[in-house]
Amino acid sequence: MLEQGQVELDGTQYALVLADRQARIVDVRCPDPSFRTALDAYGVVPGVRLGEDQVGTNAVGTALEIRQGLMVRGAEHFIAEFRSFACYGHPVIHPITRRLEGVVVIGGSSGAEHPLFSPLVRRMVRDIEERLQWDSTQRQRRLLAAFQAAARSPRRTVMVMGNGVVLATPSALALLEPADHAAVQACAEDVGAGGEVNHRLTLAAGGTVRLRGTPVEGTEGMLVDLIPEPLDRSVQCGADRATGWPLLVVGEPGSGRTAEARRVAGAGAAVIDATDSVRRGEQEWAEEMAGLLECAGPPVIIENTHLLTERLAALAAGCVRSTPRRVVLTSTPGAHLDGVHAALTSLCTVRRDLIPLRRRRHEIPRLAQRMLADTSDSADVRFSADSLRVLAAQSWPGNLTELRRVVRFATETRSAGDIVPSDLPASHRSPPAPASPLRQAEREIVVAALDASGGNRLKAARALGMSRSTLYNRMRALRIP
C-alpha cells in the first residue's frame, strides 16, 4: 500500500509513515530525497516510537489514542522540532477483532498541506483493513478445519485458539475454569523449538494436565491437546526430603525467594538479613551472624547475600562451613555468584533457581485468583476472563510482589462482581505488544547486562559490545525502564 502511495506522491515533498499499535515507526516512504533527509534529521525513522506519552501531540500517537483521523498542523505539535510539519494520521482497526493495529500518516511542510491528505490516507487505511479482513477469514477457516478434524476423535480433549477465534470440545469446557482458559492461552503463546508447545499446567480446581500444542499451518493459531495426568505426590515429597545443606535459593526481586527459603527451612528458622549490614554496620552484623551460627539450633536463613561485601561474604563462608546448623542462603542471580560471593555460594550443596514470572505466564491466572482470595474480604469478587488474559500477557519485572500489588489495587477498586481490565492499574490494563522469541531473548540479555553492571549503562554497553547511545535505543525499543 505504501509503495502505491509513494508512486502517487512522486514529484512532491510529502512523506508517508506507517506505525504499529505501539506508535513505533515501521516504514517511511518519501519520493523527495531532500525531504527524507530532513525527516531523518528530526528522528522520523523506523524503530522510533512517537507515542503521545513520549512526544506529546502528533499525528501518530494522538491518532492512536483517539482512534480516529486527525490533522495536526504546525504549532499544534507538542515538541518544537515537529512544528515545521503538517500531518494527517488515521488509525488502522482490524475489522474482525476491532483491535487497533497501527496508523498511516501523510505529512509535509507546515502550510503546504493538501486538501486530499485525508481522502488519500483514508483510502489506504480502507485497503489495509480489507486485506486484514480477507486474511482473517482465510485463517479462521483453516482453524475451524483443524479443530473439526481433531474433534472427530471422542477421546481427544482439544482447543484451537488464534486469529480472534477460540474453539473447544465439550470435554475441554468441562475440564477448564475461566482462570484455566487464560493459562492455556498463555501456554499456547509460549512456543518452543519447532513451533510446538509442551507444558504441564496445574488447574484452578486441582489436578494437572499436559498441554501439547502444534501450530495450525497458514495461521497464527495453535491446536492444543489437553491430557489429564495423575498427581504423583510421592515424587514431590521425595524431592523435599532430598534437600541438601547449605541450600542456595536464587531468584529475581519479588520472585518468592523468602517464601521458598522459609518453606524449606521450616517455620521455626532463624533469619538474618544482609540488608542490615548496610543499616547497622558490618561489624555489628558480622557479630550477630557469627553468634547465631556458632551454636546448635534450628535452621538459619541468611537473606539477600548479594548485598554482602567481599569481606563479609568470606567471613560468612567461614561461619557457614563450621556451623552445626542447617543454612539457607537467598540471592539475586548474576555474575557476583561466581565472583565476589563465590567463597560463600560454592559451599552450597544444592542451588534452586526460581523461574521469573514472565517465563511461567501460564501460572499467572491461578496465582492471581489465589491472591485475590487471600486479599479480598468478599467471596463475590473475581477476575473476568479478559482480565486474566491481560494479566498473563504482562512482563512482570517485579514478579510475585508486583502481581500481589496489582491484585490489591483491583480489590480496592471493586469489592464485588467481575474485575474487568479497566479495574486494573493503568500500567496493567492492556497487554504489551507481542514480541518474538528473538526479541524476548534480546531483552533478557540487555537486562542481565544492566543487572551485572549494577545499573551502570556505560559498563553494560561495553559488556554488550555496543555504544551507550545504541544501548539507550535498544532499551527504548525493548521497553526497558
Walk me through what this model shows.
The chain has 19 helices and 17 strands. With 481 residues, it is of the alpha/beta class. It folds into 5 domains: 134 residues, GAF domain (Beta-Lactamase), CATH 3.30.450; 77 residues, 2-Layer Sandwich (Beta-Lactamase), CATH 3.30.450; 104 residues, Rossmann fold; 72 residues, Helicase, Ruva Protein, domain 3 (Orthogonal Bundle); 41 residues, Orthogonal Bundle (Arc Repressor Mutant, subunit A). A 5-stranded antiparallel sheet has the order 2-1-5-4-3. The protein has a 5-stranded antiparallel sheet with strand order 7-6-10-9-8, with helices on both faces. A 5-stranded parallel sheet has the order 12-13-14-11-15, sandwiched between helices. Strand 8 and strand 9 form a beta hairpin. Helix 11 packs parallel to helix 12 and helix 17 crosses helix 18. The longest helix is centred in the first third of the chain and has 35 residues. The radius of gyration is 27 Å and the shape is globular.
Low-confidence stretches: 233-242
Task: Give the end-to-end Cα distance, rounded to a whole number of Å.
Answer: 35 Å
Can you say what the CATH homologous superfamily of the largest domain is?
Answer: GAF domain
- The CATH architecture category of the largest domain equals 2-Layer Sandwich
Tell me, what is the CATH class of the largest domain? Alpha Beta
- Strand count, sense and closure of the main sheet? 5 strands, antiparallel
CATH-defined topology of the largest domain: Beta-Lactamase
Give the number of domains.
5
How large is the radius of gyration?
27 Å
Structural class call reads alpha/beta
Query: Using DSSP, what is the number of strands?
Result: 17
Number of helices: 19
Look at the structure and give the mean pLDDT.
84
Strand order of the main beta sheet, please? 2-1-5-4-3
Helix content: 40-55%
Q: β content, as a range? A: 15-25%
